[in-house]
Amino acid sequence: MDRRRFLRNSAGTSLGILVAPTALGLLTAQQQAAAAPADAAQGAAFVDSYSTNTMADLTPEGNAAVRILTGMNRVWHTGGSWNTGSPLMADLLRANVRYCVRTTGQRTAAQAREAFIYDRQHQSYAVIAGLGPLADLYRAGARAVTSITTAPDSTPPAKIDDAVPAGAPAGSEIGPGAVDSELGQVVALVNTLRGPYASGNPAKYAYRYPRPWRLTEDSAVVDTGATDALGYPVYASDVVVAPQLLRQRSTSPADDGGFVSGHTNAFHLAALALAYAVPERFQELVARAFDLSHTRITAGMHSPLDVVGGRTLATALAAATLADPRNAGLKAAARAQAAAYFQAKTGTTADTLYAFAHRAPVTEDPYADRAANAEQVTPRLTYVLHRGGRDVPMTVPKGAEVLLETRLPYLDAAQRREVLRTTALPSGYALLDGPELWGRLNLFAAADGYGSFEHDVTVELDAADGGFCAADAWRNDIGGPGGLTKRGTGTLTLTGTNRYTGTTVVAAGVLAAASRDALGRGDVQVRGGTLRVDTRQGALRVHGDYLQSAPGTRLELTIRHGHAPVLTVAGRVTLGQGAQLVLRLPDARALGEELIPVITGRTLQGEFAGVTVDADGYRATPHYRHDGLAVRLTRC
Question: Which Pfam families does the record cross-reference, listed alphabetically (predicted)?
């Protein structure tokens, strides 16, 4: 018997594949074919129809959430009941269950306890830890509490639910907190994103993909006919549910689908709501949601496909809710309230709150290391999914740009869409190439700015607007044929290994280069403002020509040792009348009175109007050559 085509019900009887009528909200074979990624343009955009995500209609034609998840139809054929579906991509579904088997088999006792906590704790409360140094301040200001802080070592005798613990301050509430608190608008925003149209249950009933502990490795459900000590049916699956959660499971498999993970949906919705209100911790909150979602797999309660589906749904729901004109006042009030509250409590300003929010070491803030966060998040964007099939160009879903509205406030809507497009996952992943391509968005990467300059990009940061408008950093490795023009009085820092080939122009304010290839592969022109160079890893490389033309323009170079130039230019170096050079010496004691190479190029034309040292007790004497500049530092 081919177990991929015939499954068993709880009585052990073989059942053929059933196709349910659309009246029950299940997908016929014709609907599955019609719901291929090519139909992304059919029907209203998700942000305009997200309120159809209710139990009233479970079809892709009538339910926007079911529709955007129809990439699942490439993977799984929904049956007429919970245990009569069949694989369409058997290898993928086998890998999906094997991942669960491996993960739950290698789970430590501590991980099992953690999985229990985040299964039973209110999801919105669990996300708060992503605020790092601001988390305790948030809990106090929002009066947010939980009764689930520890886990038993074994199976508790009954179901456990979160509640306001004894002794909590008056007016405390579980979840994100109380709407009449000092952070009431932020609480209301979290609750709104998790509102009446935000459930994953319609998708669960529509797709009827079982939980992993009910699945075999070939994605067939096999009931052994036996029951365990708790009275649950025993399935032929090697997925081991955390012992603390055995009595927390549903006893009704028909009402307990795995795809999508409801907890994952809730984690990401709460994280994106807080990230909108507190963008100083945007990326860390996204990483927190990924961590929490992974505990669903560790627990044995969900599979990677369930978690990917939950994230996809939450991304779309968060964008739709934030883009809804009815919520415009609330989201603005939440952002303003959070900024005012945290600045008052920390003694910071809009320009210094970010530093405070990132002041804790990794021992106190698990999300303090951006590289470590990326290492955890990146594989969890796709888990067991593998690339294949045709190339589908990325089209950013309507309204998605609102997700970056507070994180990249100095960009317009079209630019934020381009950030989302150029940081999105590539095509070819089954499930992610569904209608509108919500699953391909990578918000963790998007928080670090552009992934590519497909055309010339002009960005304007104004210091007077404060926060990210005063100073921001783009950390991605930026490619593309376009260039960058920096305008405005604020500071933009580039830290990636950039490969874009267009011209970099500093027109105003400060452009800071913090890596050897920060300025890409093209020419660099300083026509206004300041180019600041502090690479910490060797000379900044300009692969084309370097031009500093206007009076008053500044080149600031940080000299960390005196053995190699700070700026190397493959082409010509041209210095116009009035150009200034400022040398920064972070450790002047390591430098003697010596001739230090500063700039090298194929040729050098012109001279700086002034060369100054930003360190007490030193002056600089420039020594020009036909191919560069060296500076002799002497003590005053």
Answer: PAP2, PATR
